[in-house]
Amino acid sequence: MPQFKTLRIEPDPERPRIARLLLNRPERYNAIDDDTPREIRAAVEWANAEDAIHVILVEGAGKGFCGGYDLSQFGEGVLEHPCQQEAAPWDPMVDYAYMKRNTEDFMALWRSPKPTLAKVHGAAVAGGSDIALCCDLLVMADDARIGYMPTRVWGCPTTAMWTYRLGPTRAKQLMFTGDTIDGRTAAAWGLANVSVPAAELEDSALRLAERIAGVPRSHLAMHKMVVNQVMLAMGLEQSQSLATVFDGITRHNPEGLWFRRHAQEQGFKAAVEWRDSGRPIPEGDEARALVRDIEARRRGDG
Length: 302
Prior knowledge:
Blueprint: E1 7-12, E2 15-23, H1 36-49, E3 55-60, H2 72-76, H3 92-106, H4 108-111, E4 116-120, E5 123-125, H5 127-134, E6 137-141, E7 145-147, H6 161-166, H7 168-177, E8 180-182, H8 183-188, E9 194-196, H9 201-213, H10 217-233, H11 236-252, H12 254-266, H13 268-277, H14 284-299
Parallel strand pairs: 2-3, 3-4, 4-6, 5-7, 6-9
Antiparallel strand pairs: 1-2, 7-8
Helix pairs in contact: 1-3, 3-11, 11-12, 12-13, 12-14
């Protein structure tokens, strides 16, 4: 079996046609670090090279599927990184290249000739929802949550999958509010294929995966290619390019810079609580003034 830092993949011991890809950083809620996107792509490539495997089941270790990018290190610390640059001016193409590569790595799940199925318990939020929605199918626990809270400030979902999976009206609702929805709602809206009580999630996901796994690989690949081609014809790749550019802007415009400075001064948890509370986000000149005040205090002259 291939060895990875942030995940593992292996055939199900009782169902060799099903590969189980486990996001495996439970101590960090399976948060995405610099290795995770590359390892997802490599794991998918391994599964596609194994003739016995027909379907890939993606799941998370511990309390949930994936809590998104491991942003506490970028939010609280003063850390120069392609996706969160401290030095001015911000270089958007460095940011874009880094985040576009991550998006393409997540999209390995979507491009995989073998079907991919996300099994979500706990939460698949922010970047974790990108991983889940790049999978072909989604099975959720009734009490699981999915959404992209950083649309309120400091983020834009680079995979742009929400509209293609939900339609424009529901996608706008979630993007405008940053709200999450539970498994029952996701199924009612057509985002999830199945929602079941948490105790039934494993059996439900395996039942669907086994049903798929009985189909010849070539047939699965052809049917998936037809559906994916429809999404490509609708402009998926162009939408992802635009979303990835906008994601970088949200992290470096006045509002994004305020969010980061607030997190550095008060802690990432406090910044997230403000973001998700519904309290108005400082913007424009107000955000710039707050940033100047925080930076003055950090220098000791405020």
